[in-house]
Specification:
five-stranded parallel sheet; Rossmann fold; globular; binds deoxycytidine diphosphate; 8 strands; binds adenosine-5'-diphosphate; alpha/beta; 15% strand
Length: 225
Amino acid sequence: MNNPLPEIPIIAIDGPSASGKGTVAQLVAQELGYYYLDSGALYRLLALAAVGRGVPFDDEEGLARLAEGLTIRFEGGEVWLDGEQVGDAIRTEECGNGASRIAAYPRVRAALLDLQRAFLQAPGLVADGRDMGSVVFPGAMLKIFLTASAEVRADRRYKQLMGKGMHANIKQILHDIRQRDERDSARSVAPLQKCADASLLDTSSMTIVEAVDEVLAWFQQVCVR
Ligand SMILES: Nc1ncnc2c1ncn2[C@@H]1O[C@H](COP(=O)(O)OP(=O)(O)O)[C@@H](O)[C@H]1O
Ligand SMILES: Nc1ccn([C@H]2C[C@H](O)[C@@H](COP(=O)(O)OP(=O)(O)O)O2)c(=O)n1
């Protein structure tokens, strides 16, 4: 399927956990004055809602129903679930691992599709996740596969969690990241993989500013084509 609104420019940034997708995507969106979709946050919100409502992580039908009725709101970098502010609660590694588990179910993914596409508004959208370029916005103007070595990503996530005053153990984070990479890449539906038409950006030895500048430079190139 192509973009529902192909005339609106979309930058799709996919990649593994803690590669810097969200950070880079938000800065690019800010620079261009575009909207931003953090698709992983939707899977994290669903995992949190499932725990809160007692829906087991192996109940695909129950999770899909829950996804269809989610009441969520994004505003000013914060997020609300059923009226409760949950920005920090969804950022834990437990929630990320839960999100990765429930994201493997086709019916869960289907239930979240329209919600993700509803973020597409003029003047443009920067969307990050695992399947932005392959499934949700296959007609994106620019597709990027943003990655970094597992060790660099574990170090980034460790510092990020410590910076938020959250408990973190670097060995456990590296273990979880490898397990999540494996689960997200091996699933049968919308697996994490670089699309043939995506540009590879390995940020292992890049600063955030360098990564953002690279994305903006690629975007200028596709805009003048
Ligand atoms: N190129 C980079 N160099 C150093 N740190 C980075 C870089 N990109 C992102 N980070 C840091 O890594 C952490 C994880 O980034 P985040 O955007 O949350 O990743 P993702 O969305 O892929 O999980 C953040 O604290 C961010 O500031
Ligand atoms: N488009 C997406 C986004 C996230 N997911 C799943 C798989 C991921 O491991 C979890 C959490 O995603 P999120 O992007 O928040 O995770 P990271 O910040 O990269 O660690 O959700 C997905 O399957 N498809």
